[in-house]
Predict the structure.
Amino acid sequence: MQTANITNNDSLNVRLNANRNFGTLDFHAWVFHNCAFESGMDVLDVGCGNGKQVLEALRVLGSTGSVTALDISQDSVQQLRAATATASNLELVVADMREVGRLIVDTFRVKSYDLAQATYALFYGVEHVKILEAMRKSLKPQGRLLVTTPLGPNGLRQLVNRLGFPTPELAQIDNFGSNVLEPYFRSFFDQVDIQIRRNLLRLPSVEAVRELYRSTAYHFEEAEPALLRFVAAEIEARGFFAFEKNAYMIQGSNPSSV
Ligand SMILES: C[S@@+](CC[C@H](N)C(=O)[O-])C[C@H]1O[C@@H](n2cnc3c(N)ncnc32)[C@H](O)[C@@H]1O
């Protein structure tokens, strides 16, 4: 039986902590650098979670500009609300990202953005192109659309599959990546920047792997014993268990011609 919940805030925190503690890539620094938040910017964050990018945006923007953000997880939004109670330039809603176009038109105070971004979230959205369309159409003339997403294969998930636990219900997530993003960005933007970052997670203990595995969307209780036996043998032999969990980023803009 699959037990993990992708929108669960505790699971999200476990995954974020594992990346921070055991990954070779400083993921958030990379994303922040490319978001290039600047004072006065209006930012849209789709699938904001508990606010990694929102908090950084607000820190840079101060009281200028605005952040408009949505996530389907009530827990994550609540946590972010508690952390940003004093920010009057933040509009934060619990919503399905498939509704982002309608929300921009009907609900959000700020309706056009210098940056519309989704970090590790758009692949959950099912109607990817509809969401991309809504984000793109909300851009100011020289605004940027930025999507960061996992670059498969995920080594831990591959191992779980190899151990006999395929994850077909994630097919719609698997079907999203450069195959959808590149044609879309190439159709609409004069300038398209693509980056790939390798990220090697090196976990030092069986407990750390168990906790991380339980926070994933491909967690199966039945797979745990075999996985953890494999992991224990790796740690015994090498001192750690390592797998790749790489990242892909695409950014589009229409800078005025020079
Ligand atoms: C991996 S987290 C990323 C959160 C944040 N952007 C970050 O980088 O820390 C993915 C987020 O997408 C949200 N999500 C999943 N499906 C969604 C949907 N249909 N609409 C809006 N948010 C969704 C989850 O609740 C989760 O907070």
Q: What stands out?
A: The pocket of S-adenosylmethionine is lined by residues 6-7, 12, 47-49, 52-53, 71-73, 76, 96-97, 119-121, 124-125 (CB under 6 Å). The two ends are 57 Å apart (CA to CA). The longest strand covers residues 139-151.
